[in-house]
Design a protein that fits this description.
Blueprint lengths: L14 E3 L4 E3 L1 H18 L8 E5 L4 H13 L4 E8 L6 H14 L3 E6 H5 L15 H19 L4 E3 L4 H14 L2 H6 L4 E4 L4 E4 L7 H10 L17 H14 L3 H12 L9 E2 L6 E2 L5 H11 L2 H4 L11
The structure holds iron/sulfur cluster and zinc ion (2 copies).
The site of one zinc ion has 8 residues, from α1.
Length: about 325
Amino acid sequence: MEVKECVKCGKPAFYYRPYSGEYLCKGCFVTSIYDITLQTIRKYEMIKYGERVVVGVSGGKDSVSLLYILAKFFKGNEIIAVTVDEGIKGYREEGIQIASKIAQQLNVKHVIYSYKQLFNYTIDDIQEIKGKYSSCTICGIFRRRALDVAAKELNAQVLATAHNLDDVLQTYFILLTNGDIERLKTFNPAVEKSEAFGIRKVHPFFRIYEKELAMFAMLKGFDFQTVVCPYMAQGIRSEIREFLNKLEEKHPGIKYQLLSTFMQLYSERIKVEGQFCKKCGWPSKGEICQVCRTIDFLNSNKYKLMGGKDEFLGSNQ
Ligand code: SF4
Ligand code: ZN
Ligand code: ZN
């Protein structure tokens, strides 16, 4: 079989990138991940010189890679790693250890925020009372708030998370299946604004395939968590992931095309009227924010009395 040459340096290629048509050797592939990430950060003005950046680090391949790249290339910024402890026994402990180790190696401060402390519930705790909602729906609502609280308390200007192209597409499809038109139009996979606290939420990997980040982390020899969360299969996200992977197998590059299409939907003109939650004071679309509604729901286990109307928690998965 003919071995293709790397389009950058002529060495034997080890990877073909379908959406760009490039054959790349290992070294040029690693460099390409740096380049795409740095271009994305520049293009969408994600991080400015001197800003304090909180990075969500779960200990998985994506977040470990993001922490590494930010620590390597953003010496003029203070980088802080934050790990969210959802309280999932037999799963989260390893991620915390890995995150802690890499943060130490990179000389980056590492802070842990736990659901138990913030919301008085762990994800293990809610199994009996979560009703028809998947753990991931509730966990997603809590994680966003936990990271926002961390960024605010640590006086950061930027909150970076390692969402990759696959994560973003899955979110688009979840919004589609939920018919959440408003969020579909306002969902910006690059930069989300949390104007109330002046924190910019950025996703420097949103144009990179999950598969490529896994290859990057392995080529770099990072230690990362491979065990999956025991509650992962509860949500629709896993099914959408499988569906998109099958589609990509048959039509290489289609995920990249889908991302471009979805991004054209985004309109900056549509702004959600800002108001603040009457209970906790955080920005909210309604009088009571999604986090407080979730906690109220769990406290009273109202779900059982509600007769199944699915509006209570909104459409986040
Ligand atoms: Fe939370 Fe679901 Fe992720 Fe588990 S898989 S950590 S429950 S969002
Ligand atoms: Zn090369
Ligand atoms: Zn609230």
